[in-house]
Every structure is written in C-alpha cells, then in structure tokens.
Amino acid sequence: MPSFKTTIFADADAVADAVAAQVASTVKSHPQLTLGLATGKTFRQIYDRLVERFREGAFSLSAARSFNLDEYVGLPPKHPASFTAYMDDVLFRHVDLPAGAARLPSVAGGGSLAECAAYEAAIEAAGGIDLQLLGIGRNGHIGFNEPGSSFDSRTRLVALTDSTRQANAADFPEGESTPPSAVTMGIGTILEARQIVLVATGAHKHAPLQAVLSGIPDADCPASALHNHRNLHIFADEAAWSGIKI
Ligand code: F6R
C-alpha cells in the first residue's frame, strides 16, 4: 500500500533541522540500521545539523552502516568534487561511523558491471537499506537516475544529462566540468528501502515534487516512482510546496 506523509516548513533551515532530528531519532532507536545517503547542496545543511546533534550526544553511528546513492566516474577519489570527498567533508570525519562501514559505489574500474553488481550484493548482504535519504533533481532525477530510467533499474553506469551537469558545474574548480557519467543505485534499488525521506527545498524543486505527489507514474520524471512507496516522508519548504496540488 502506498503511504506518504508530507511536512512543510517555512524555509530550508527549518527543513534541515527537522530532517536531522528525524535521522538522529531513528538512529537512536535503531543503532544498527543501514542508511542510504545522498549528497548535493540540499544535504550540506542537513549533515551540518546532524553533526551538531552527534556532538550533543544525541546518537551514535558506531553500529550503523551506510551506502551512498551515487559517485561520478573518472574523478580521482581525492578530487574535491567527488562525492567521496563531499561525504568525508560534511559527515564521515565528524561522526563515529566506522570507516569500513561507509560505502560509496566503486568507480575505480570505470563503473564496470562487476563493480555495480558488487554494490548491489553488498546492500543485500547488509540486509537492505532501512532509511534512505533522497534529494530530487530539478529534472526529477533521484540518485543519478535521469529521465527515461526504468523504475526497476539497479545500480549501474549512467550518462548524465546536460541539465544535471550544468546544475552541478559550480562544484567543480574553474576550467573543469561535471563528468559525463556516474554510477548510481537504480530506482528499483531505492524503492526497496524500508523508509524513504525525500527532501525538496526551493522553488526549482516545485515541478518534480508535484510529479511525486500527482500519483501518475511518468518515466520522464523518475521521482514519480516514489509515489507508490510504502513508507515515504516528504520534507519540503514553502518555496517548493507553494501551489502543489494533490
Ligand atoms: C545526490 C543525488 C542527487 C541530488 C539532486 C539534488 O547524491 O543523488 O539526486 O539529490 O541532484 O541536488 P541538490 O541538493 O544539489 O539540488
């Protein structure tokens, strides 16, 4: 049975506080959980708040595990715009998640079939994802599942659209551009998470958010696949929510 809940806040700051509080309390009550983690601008603020809560002693990640949604192909691991560097910078180096317990898709082999299959197998061996954190692209992507992705897709090598490459270009040093490809968990992989927290802030997230809520599956908007998830909680701000029709 699809089941979703929406909570709307005045602005992105209030959303970040609420998402961090929700993650902290879920981890506190279920310390051995497996988290699915997202990157992106939306999540910087959320991880900042989560780290504050960790420092206040609200929870520990010492028994948890995590799997990130995606990673660019072709960047050295230490590249400042890699999602590996992002996660170290905003979360991993500040909390007690054991080093070997935090994984991102391996891209050392260029996103080979074997690397992607190994990531799926590792998620399965961990018992699946308990809580998946998700942002949403302005074109409706989730993870790096771009428009046209199959709703039962699994972890794989994907080509990024021009719109996604432009949206992320500011993360790259001058003279460099967003890589053309990445490895992402599939939509099918994401939908298997027991609980999904979807975060949408800013007016540019209004249209993809409307697609999630309309209930009409549309391959042109991968996020629309979330509508039928059995445990989806949407956190949005007024700018993304204003004018939404359910
Ligand atoms: C990041 C990811 C993407 C982002 C999305 C929104 O790991 O998978 O789907 O969540 O592109 O990014 P921001 O928050 O930068 O607008």
Provide the descriptors you would attach to this structure in a database record.
alpha/beta, seven-stranded parallel β-sheet, binds fructose -6-phosphate
Describe this structure in words.
- Helix content is 32%, strand content 17%.
- The chain has 246 residues and is of the alpha/beta class.
- The chain has a seven-stranded parallel sheet.
- Strand 9 (195-200), helix 7 (206-214) and strand 10 form a beta-alpha-beta unit.
- The longest helix is centred in the N-terminal third of the chain and has 18 residues, at 12-29.
- The relative contact order is 0.19.
- It binds fructose -6-phosphate.
- Residues 38-42, 69-70, 135-137, 141-144 line the site of fructose -6-phosphate (F6R).
User: Which regions have little confidence, pLDDT < 50, spanning 5+ residues?
Assistant: none
Helix content: 25-40%
Number of strands: 10
Helix tally?
Answer: 8
Strand content: 15-25%
Strand order of the largest sheet: 1-10-9-6-2-3-5
Gyration radius (Cα, Å) is: 17 Å
Shape: globular
Order of helices and strands: EHEHEEHEHEEHEHEHEH
**Major pleated sheet:** 7 strands, parallel
Average pLDDT score: 96
The chain-level structural class is alpha/beta
Distance between the termini: 17 Å
List all distinct small molecules, including ions and cofactors, that are bound in this structure: fructose -6-phosphate
